[in-house]
Automatic annotation (TrEMBL):
<dbReference type="Pfam" id="PF05634">
    <property type="entry name" value="APO_RNA-bind"/>
</dbReference>
<dbReference type="InterPro" id="IPR023342">
    <property type="entry name" value="APO_dom"/>
</dbReference>
<feature type="domain" description="APO">
    <location>
        <begin position="210"/>
        <end position="295"/>
    </location>
</feature>
<dbReference type="GO" id="GO:0003723">
    <property type="term" value="F:RNA binding"/>
</dbReference>
<feature type="domain" description="APO">
    <location>
        <begin position="68"/>
        <end position="153"/>
    </location>
</feature>
<protein>
    <recommendedName>
        <fullName>APO domain-containing protein</fullName>
    </recommendedName>
</protein>
Length: 314
């Protein structure tokens, strides 16, 4: 072996047991910097916007039909589902088939994303055997709670019954007028933009992780060690998650759906799928009620785009 491959160290071996108290003290001092006072109003605004979105979407669902596929996460806003062959099916079903539509619900529009509720931000990493010792709460609410907001019990544990009670009876004796529906849609759309912008600001100050191979989210400086990822079921990882930095779409999934334009046929056909537009399902639902879409969605929606030319048989 040549001398060039040798390495010489002048310092002595470091005893990790002596460093442990110093590391723990540094972590405790870091925890004193949280929550950041300047981010508390943002967190509270996100909570209020989330509540407005749930109430607004629940009210609009009673007037505008939303369909969900029976075998995949596809959603469509309209009385009749489209005929575009994008159904991914389930395990024993062929791919790229026409969807089988059923009546959609609030969870089909606002995708629930849950995470473990921590006692404090810098607590010890959750081990696999501790996965049942911590409650599962909405990820956005957990992020706001760590940022210093004061969520209520309904924020931590929402239910469809509570949301419908807060909306009132809009489908019975006292239906809403078109102007009232338009007002609800505009308010819901503004709350949607406020929610996503607020979560973006919070993620710049507070860490959140998402698994690279599944939709699991963890709000905190390091991901948990609960082996719940199905990708590594038969691998040496034994279901451990592969964590990376979470983005807004991980905590607030937009759920992009097909949108029918005035120039499109009543039922969207598979042959014209290259011409149709898209939109987030919340935005699409608000547009059906008369809201005006922000300009940033116009490109996705293909507002002025052409429709599929009709073939004339000679």
């Amino acid at each position: 072996m040549s001398y060039s491959s040798w390495r010489f160290y002048s310092s002595k071996m470091v005893d990790l047991k002596q460093l442990r108290p110093m590391i723990q003290k540094r972590i405790e001092n870091r925890a004193k910097d949280y929550p950041i006072k300047g981010m508390r109003p943002v967190a509270q605004e996100v909570l209020n916007s989330r509540k407005l979105i749930m109430e607004g979407v629940s009210a609009l669902l009673k007037h505008f039909p939303v369909l969900a596929c029976k075998f995949c996460p596809e959603v469509y806003v309209g009385e009749k589902g489209h005929l575009i062959q994008t159904c991914c099916g389930y395990r024993r079903r062929a791919k790229n088939r026409v969807h089988e539509w059923v009546v959609g619900s609030l969870d089909d529009v606002l995708v629930p994303v849950e995470t473990f509720h921590l006692q404090h931000m810098h607590q010890d990493v959750i081990k696999h055997h501790q996965r049942f010792d911590f409650e599962r709460v909405p990820a956005v609410v957990e992020l706001c709670w760590q940022a210093g907001a004061d969520p209520t019990a309904k924020d931590f544990y929402p239910s469809a019954h509570n949301v419908e009670d807060s909306c009132g009876d809009v489908n019975g004796v006292k239906p809403l007028s078109p102007d009232e529906l338009r007002s609800i849609a505009n308010g819901t759309l503004r709350a949607w933009e406020t929610l996503r912008n607020g979560v973006q600001k919070l993620l710049l100050a507070y860490p959140a992780k998402v698994c690279k191979h599944c939709s699991e989210v963890h709000v905190g400086p390091s991901g948990h060690m609960a082996r719940l990822c199905g990708v590594f079921k038969y691998e040496s990882w034994r279901g451990a998650h592969f964590w990376e930095k979470a983005e807004v779409d991980d905590l607030v999934p937009p759920k992009i759906v097909w949108r029918r334009r005035p120039q499109d046929p009543i039922v969207l056909l598979n042959e014209g799928r290259d011409f149709y537009g898209h939109a987030p399902v919340v935005v699409n639902l608000c547009l059906e009620a008369g809201a005006i879409a922000p300009a940033k969605y116009h490109c996705m929606m293909k507002v002025q785009g052409l429709t599929r030319p009709v073939e004339v048989k000679v």
